[in-house]
């Protein structure tokens, strides 16, 4: 096992990486879809590189960030980006407080400042949904300087040695804009694909131990067919989403499988032709 990860984890907790690794599932529940991906990302974290996770909706990006947080016993602060995201939502804001009859102005620290000072993980979700002019405020945080001059207080903040930044994007989605080069260049980037094969089976069996082997086989076959049609360009990528598949299993505990797939996969897509194609594929497996 990679010693650089071991050393870092020992600094932060007691259990050694590599002990008790009999399951594909990491602490926090993440399963790596590609051999080495999990470990390569951990190395990026240990080297204090900002990590960019690129993958479709429901591919486990948030789960991966939570698993890193559990692995290093490091709390995580999340920022959900939108066009309304501003410097105050990132850094914090001033507020008036009254104490013992006196009025003060106090600065309430936002997620970036808290994570930097406490050495926590900062998770920036859908970073490409933010307005491009909002994020340059983070440039000095994300490069070798690892510092920030808070424009609201003038305070110069140097990041704690364990401070970690993980960002996630769904590329090419409505409402997203391409990340500007200067921002993207500060990250090391990892493509996060959907789970397939034994890894997918493992997560299903872990979350739905009561599911019959027949149901698991059927759903795995349907998922494979959906993936083929995604590759053929006939279905959008989310048709093969792991989140949707897990939703199917949850529903299928209570309603017939066909309806479960309709609600959890087909109806989530906007295109009627795609919905029809999904249900036709399902009908070849579910009687
Ligand atoms: N590789 C994986 N390992 C463990 N769980 C996974 C994995 N991929 C998907 N999941 C499960 O699928 C669901 C969705 O995962 P998650 O919310 O992390 O996706 P996401 O990529 O962050 O999605 P979005 O882009 O829509 O926010 C969760 O229940 C998660 O446990």
From TrEMBL:
- Which family does this protein fall into? Belongs to the CbbQ/NirQ/NorQ/GpvN family.
Which residue intervals define the domain AAA+ ATPase in the entry? 47-198
| SUPFAM superfamilies attached to this UniProt entry | P-loop containing nucleoside triphosphate hydrolases
Q: Where is the composition biased (Polar residues)?
A: 1-12
Q: Cross-referenced Pfam families, in alphabetical order?
A: AAA_5
Q: Which residues form a coiled coil?
A: none
Query: What's this protein's name?
Result: AAA family ATPase
Organism name: Sporosarcina highlanderae
Question: Which region ranges are annotated with the description Disordered?
Answer: 1-20
């Amino acid at each position: 096992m990679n010693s650089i990860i071991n050393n870092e984890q020992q600094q932060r907790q007691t259990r050694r990486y590599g002990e008790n690794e009999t399951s594909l599932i990491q602490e926090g529940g993440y399963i790596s879809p590609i051999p080495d991906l999990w470990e390569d990302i951990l190395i990026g974290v240990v080297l204090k590189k900002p990590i960019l996770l690129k993958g479709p909706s429901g591919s486990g990006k948030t789960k991966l960030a939570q698993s890193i947080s559990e692995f290093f016993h490091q709390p995580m602060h999340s920022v959900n980006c939108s066009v309304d995201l501003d410097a105050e939502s990132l850094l914090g804001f001033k507020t008036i407080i009254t104490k013992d009859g006196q009025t003060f102005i106090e600065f309430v620290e936002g997620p970036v400042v808290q994570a930097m000072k406490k050495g926590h993980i900062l998770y920036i979700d859908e970073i490409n949904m933010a307005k491009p002019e909002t994020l340059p405020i983070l440039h000095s945080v994300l490069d070798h300087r690892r510092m920030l001059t808070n424009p609201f207080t003038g305070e110069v903040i140097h990041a704690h040695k364990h401070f970690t930044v993980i960002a996630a994007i769904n590329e090419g989605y409505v409402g997203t804009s391409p990340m500007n080069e200067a921002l993207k260049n500060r990250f090391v980037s990892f493509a996060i694909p959907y789970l397939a094969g034994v890894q997918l089976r493992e997560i299903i069996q872990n979350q739905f131990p009561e599911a019959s082997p027949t149901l698991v086989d059927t759903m795995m076959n349907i998922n494979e067919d959906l993936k083929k049609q995604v590759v053929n360009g006939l279905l959008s990528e989310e048709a093969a989403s792991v989140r949707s598949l897990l939703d199917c299993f949850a529903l299928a505990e209570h309603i017939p499988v066909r309806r479960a797939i309709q609600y959890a996969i087909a109806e989530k897509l906007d295109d009627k032709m795609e919905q029809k194609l999904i249900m036709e594929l399902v009908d070849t497996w579910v009687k």
